[in-house]
Amino acid sequence: MRHQYKPLMLLSLMFFMVGALFCMNDILLPSLITHFKLNYTQATMIQFTFYLTYIIFPIPIAWMIHRFGYKVSLLVAVVTCSLGAALFWPAKIFDSYPIVLFAIFIISTGLTIINVAANPFASMLGDPEGAHQRINFVQVFSRIGYAVTPAVATTLIYNQIGEIRFHFPYLLLAGILLLIALLMGLSHLPAMKPESDDLFTLKGILSEGYSHRHLFFGVFAMFFYMGAESCTCGFFIPYLKSVLGFTDAKAADYLTLYYILTAVMGIFGVVLLKYVDAHKLLGFFGVGMVVIFSMIITFNSGYNEFLMAGLGLFLSIMFPTVFSLAIEEIGSFTGKGSALLNFALIGGSVFPPIQGMIADHHGVQISYVIPMFCVVMVSVYAFFFTRIPILKRNKLSLLTDR
Predict the structure, then answer these.
(1) At a CB cut-off of 8 Å and minimum separation 6, what does 11 contact?
(2) CATH of the domain at 150
(3) What confidence tens digit (pLDDT) does each residue in 246-257 have?
(4) How many domains does the chain have?
């Protein structure tokens, strides 16, 4: 099986930073609750703002990729992320929560470009049958970025006298992102473009997307997956603090463990995909998450912190696998299909405020019914609505008609 390893390694470096930027939301939320004296619903405006870009920009981004290719689009993405991270400096100077939200919105705009461009780009860097493995491979580095961020970011945010310096890790990230942009600009990253030369209209993309039924259902699965991920991670530290009485630093240690387990299982998942059908693996992992959610909602066993961290094992392969299953064998529609899937990331904006309202009125522990419901929906997609189950149902229908 052929893969283009040099471009894949550069994408992997970029995804490492993507993981760090996503993880920063989980560290930022509890620190800003303390700094700005927010309730849970107000604090979830971080996730709401972060994922809002996925309903605004996917089609314009898909047009940009169509017009300028993947390399230019990814370069623009990294520079945009760096700019957004740098905006945390004026947010600290003016001590302004609205500026924080604006900075997050800019960062998310860059990450939206990466998600629209990088995943289909990775799928093209080799033989088609290796697409699942390549997307999971580069996403592993995102998980590694997640894993190393909590401990480092918590150390940077909280000084020895307890002062909250929420801008410190973002300024560091801004500098690293600029270096990556320079490296990408000087590299020989292939300047690929999507195959199709059709005009970009929302109506046309939606119409053609519906003709690929597994992609159409994959958009809904991605919507619920993003709700599950953003809720699970966003309320991870608040859960450990409010339910188990942990300090910020101790809770961050278990968040680090969560992301380490996610990264390790992500690597192992690349191997598993050689032997297990992608849709079955996704479904079984979803069932595992539902079992753990049921336990952390219902019981306080004395081991809930490890159960929370264990969620990372099952979440590990979900995003890249849902993504690759949805765009499987859709040919020249891959770029536009990616844009449709990124519309679905708005799920990360929709569900956290709902969980926040439940947490404010009934407690953080009960609020985890929201990500549990989302994972149930992903599992239903995996077992019944991916390309292979749909083909099987169509064949059965034909036989019955005869």
Answers:
(1) 118, 121, 122, 125, 138
(2) 1.20.1250.20
(3) 998 899 999 999
(4) 1
